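Protocol step 6 of 9: fold each sequence in the batch and record its structure tokens directly after the sequence line. For illustration, a two-sequence batch is reproduced in full.

Sequence one:
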Amino acid sequence: MLRLVTYIVSLGFVFAAKTGRAAYTLKMPYGVTPISQRIYHLHMAAFYVSCAMGAIVFIILIYSLFRLRKSRGAQPAKVHGNLVVEMIWTTIPFLILIGLAIPATKRLSDIHDTTRPDITINSGN
């Protein structure tokens, strides 16, 4: 009975929170200027890379849970101190971060480019 009351109260909070907020969108709004459009595409690329990495980790986790469960008599592998494995799981995230940081830095420098300003403000001197 207590579980049913908790469930009903939780649903009430969910519906109350849903009606009190504005329209929710998952993605960034698509920009009007060329720089904002490039930022949008960079954001979506990072989002897709993150989703792919999450899916890969989740698939490996589910596979490991079913394939290496104790009821099948699986014995743990001896990977403690394995230099090759440690180098692989350190290098791959580093390369992913570098692959995302280079275009992000380029976009940031595009935003702060002042070589061709739209207007010039003189101080009056």
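Sequence two, same batch, same settings:
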Amino acid sequence: MKFLKRPVLALGLVLAGWLLQGGTAAAYTCWSPHCYGIVRWQEQPEYFGAYTDITLGRITCSGCDGFVTNEVWLVQRPSAECPQQCWVEAGYTTDGGHNGPYFFWDEVPPGGQYVQHNLGPADPVGSVDHFMIVKDGRVSPATFLVFIYNDTFSTLYGGLSATRTATAMVADHIDMGQELFGSRGITTSATAFTRNIRAVVPLGPEYVFWYWPQTTAGFVMQDMPPFAWWDTLPPVPFGSPEGGRFMTWTP
């Protein structure tokens, strides 16, 4: 068992070589459904939280008619309280209606509708930002806490997702990667997701994110674009990096 110290402080305050070489912009039709380049973990009966470090890649919208994200999702499949799905997600994005990339978190809580939470401008390309979603077991029904921050906490955002019913979301899988919507104008550089870990219990009175690294490769799905692949497969020794290194890309 391991615990994550830095988020406690926050609470208190393989593709082939030709893909990496670039080339002409990819063609895509990603209206309904959206297009994805993600990895999915669904081995556990419940996921109490998800965390990843994203080394922010370039994401651009040149006359685009949609959006692109790099993010992590905590998801519950359809149920009585979640007729289509419930989820909490956090990441960074760009689209035709904003000036440059920005951080966000979104939600569809049990008994509720989709709500988008746009935050401040994303950090510069190459920055490593930390994205955490954790179930808060200190309240009933449990809520979900969201944190986006960097090492110095000069970037520090938080959110709270609460059920609209008497039943809390029970997440049965984690998704991580890139989402693409629209049909033109989006490009991204190859973007790395590292320190891919999961909470093993809800947040308790000790205020600690108890975690374990992802130890399987999960199930990789890619609509080409977005492209998605494991650069370093889990499991790897702790710190090499924990949970592997996952990559996304829309050329």
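Proceed to step 7 once all outputs are recorded. Observation for sequence two: Residues 5-23 have pLDDT under 50 and may be disordered.
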